[in-house]
Amino acid sequence: RSAPWPAVVAGAFDASRHAPRSQTLEVIAGAFRCSLTARLAPVRYGPARQAETASEAAADMYLLVALDGFWMGKGNLPSRSCLVVRCGALTEAKCKARIACANYTDPACGDGRSLYDEAGDLAAEAMFETIDLRGTFQEGDIVLPMVGLHMGQLLAAEALHVHNGRLRASVGAPLLNAMLFAMPAGTGGDVSAPGRLEPEGSEGPAGRAPMADFPAGGASRAAAWAIERGATVL
């Protein structure tokens, strides 16, 4: 029998033109903690928005979500997740309601639909200079990083490589969402599993796009093996 979904525990932060460049946020679901430290790029928006002549930018909100319970499948896959997701101009309440909806459309959901139901829901405009996402995953958790870009673009295999035990991915496009997703494989002490975007050229040739930096060290050996081969990363 499907288990009930846990409540969505989330906090909002602003990525619009006039928002502070530095953002720090923490949310806690039970004993599971997710923390975010982000810095917006000086040029906040992608090429489409830069080409516009409008004097003011619309609201552009993101949520940091912590989930310690069932996330995928038919309520039968236990997991722990730290998720950063774009809400755009939605209110915080509407965005939370859509995140908690398991189907594309469902009258039983608080807002009647999920966050992603049509192509326009996949648009992203804000450019991040750095983002550091951490979760207090447990020893033995298989931790998988996932990244989604503007209009649902996936990272190409050539954009991924392992450096000093960390998965690095070029994300030179507006960020739609990012996740640290863990499938529990046991219990034990807390292990921090950070993911971080580095500024352009920080540890590579000048002119490279910003990099997403996800460690294999905070995950199990099985996760490190899969990540190294790019088999489990979006």
From TrEMBL:
Region annotation (Disordered) ranges: 190-210
InterPro entries: Vanin_C (IPR043957)
Origin: domain of life: Eukaryota
Domain Vanin C-terminal: 21-153
Protein name: Vanin C-terminal domain-containing protein
Organism, scientific name: Zooxanthella nutricula
